[in-house]
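Q: Hi! First time asking for a complex rather than a single chain. Here are the components, and I think there are four in total. Is that enough to go on?
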Amino acid sequence: MNATIKDVARAAKVSIATVSRILNNQPGYSLKTKQRVLKAIKTLNYQPNAVARGLINKKTRTLGILVPNVSSMFSSLLLKGVEDAAYTRGYSVIMCHTANSGVRTMDYLHVLKEKRVDGLLFTSEVLKDAYYDEIRRMGVPLVLLATQSLNDSIPYVKVDDRMAAYHAVRYLIAKGHTKIGMISGNKEDRIAGQPRIDGFIQALKDHNLSFNQKQIVYGPSFSFDDGKRLLLDLLSKNRGLTAIFAASDFLAVGALSAAYSSGLRVPDDLSIIGYDNLEIAKMSLPPLTTVGQPLFQIGSVGGMMLIDIIEDKGNVEGRILPHQIIERQTVSERSKALTEKNYDKQ
Amino acid sequence: MNATIKDVARAAKVSIATVSRILNNQPGYSLKTKQRVLKAIKTLNYQPNAVARGLINKKTRTLGILVPNVSSMFSSLLLKGVEDAAYTRGYSVIMCHTANSGVRTMDYLHVLKEKRVDGLLFTSEVLKDAYYDEIRRMGVPLVLLATQSLNDSIPYVKVDDRMAAYHAVRYLIAKGHTKIGMISGNKEDRIAGQPRIDGFIQALKDHNLSFNQKQIVYGPSFSFDDGKRLLLDLLSKNRGLTAIFAASDFLAVGALSAAYSSGLRVPDDLSIIGYDNLEIAKMSLPPLTTVGQPLFQIGSVGGMMLIDIIEDKGNVEGRILPHQIIERQTVSERSKALTEKNYDKQ
DNA sequence: TTGTAGGCGTTATCAG
DNA sequence: CTGATAACGCCTACAA
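A: Yes, that's all I need. Here is the structure of the assembled complex.
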């Protein structure tokens, strides 16, 4: 059905070697033959077979990316970033939805190996030893996105979670808040858990605010429903809280929702700052102030980095990308007077 | 680096033909040799090279999917569905973010052809002739997701947009609303535009409600920002509206936001029903009532269908999947009395 | 039950 | 400047 290099050679009355040279613009042919060949290519609508090329070159110009959830607002931005980098560099990307499942992840690793992808991206989840061993055996480069490996020196690109959390809380403090609670998601999470908690506590300490463990409340995940539940939990354990740092936008929006249901007005009665700056942050009511991580960029920078490694242009160092406070409408300025007034109420 | 079939053959002291037979479990070997070969495979950690296989079989077990925006809540669910079908059938999927760009789409079509994918999924956008011609030349099956081609009989999987809109409006009417407006997105959109408008109008007519063109308001897209703007526009053109049908959840949530800003309470003063049932519908304030389309399913059914065609098991007919009204909290019951009371106010 | 050999579409190394 | 030809890793007649 599809024309092959042989067809082109025959049509142009040259050898396949010559066609190949022209295709890969290597030296060794006259202008005339080149034009003849080019014409043959056009009329036959010839396009080289990447599979055959891959076989001999041992390069497929294909990347594999493993994400826990293809459709989450978080991962999908990462995906888009990777895709963009791949596109501009002439690579394709195979997406693998791991569903947080070990067997599914291993399955994909095997497929990706069989398909001889040139490199791997691994996102969000922690890189288990079993995965890493398998990847080592594949012998392809790997870069981590929005996550980091503790024991090994695998290149990664992410934000400084501890610092970002610190800045979020510092922002609250700068706005005059002194009674601040935190809705942490799953504290076992190596990236979104402890580091953000540490940042929260450090910010409190650095500004001479007292800290008690009950100011932090934990959940199984970082979801909207957890946010709803956890806000109530947090409020019941602490009196007089005026601001809250939520470890994800979903948690924050869930908190927003719970606040609304219990008659608390945001930001008048309670300020909330989120984490991530997903699309939903713009669309919540009121629009959510949050500390944003550049997810698309993390993806594209990571993709570029991986391709650089593949093509040996590579600095293979981890990279921390800057985060940023996105001011919207869920954090209020809190004057001293206001604070006292509020105390009276309670 | 990686072991080949030849290495296995040598290690097991058989010919590569025998190894191949065992790999593809075809008849023609004794149990003993099989076990010997299997052991060799294990110890060498051999995995077949899918590139070589693809070259000879002319099958890559790879699908290509073209989506306008990888990271939109809408497309990403479709993606996940396709991915899931592919995974269960042993296929991989290459994702292509077209960014609504013609050249980018054509670029992708070319690489997908070069990489010899076994089939194509095309989503959301209209299938331009240039795309279709190129795909025909590729000679691979195609299925359309959440869109449909008018002139040709290409298999598709989608919802009945006209019917879904009709039901949304009928639902509003059943709740006692008689003054209903519509926020349409881009009316040029072949799928999300006119069909939903038609459904809206038809529902009104079938229930003997008057209809005037100004009850519908249009925007450039289906976005949150458009929703904000368009609600105000709609309200200014029509007095006494008690309910609104928005052609997308984003439009609806934008409308929610605008309503809030202008002091209108949803659903007490104004009811709103959306379209899509994206994740955001659960998380809006109040949670959005909407007519849901099963995006994940559309993706997975479409993926299965495509693979069926590839593997010649194929019924190649288009399929309409059922939509469903998802009742949440943005539509109020409207008694006759209430209606009159509201009229007095205005 | 097993092995030999040709070929899938390219690239690359030789000669000429 | 050009053309044979041997790989790449695998599958599959065809023989044995």
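A: Confidence is low (pLDDT under 50) at residues 339-346 of chain B. Let me know if you'd like any chain examined more closely.
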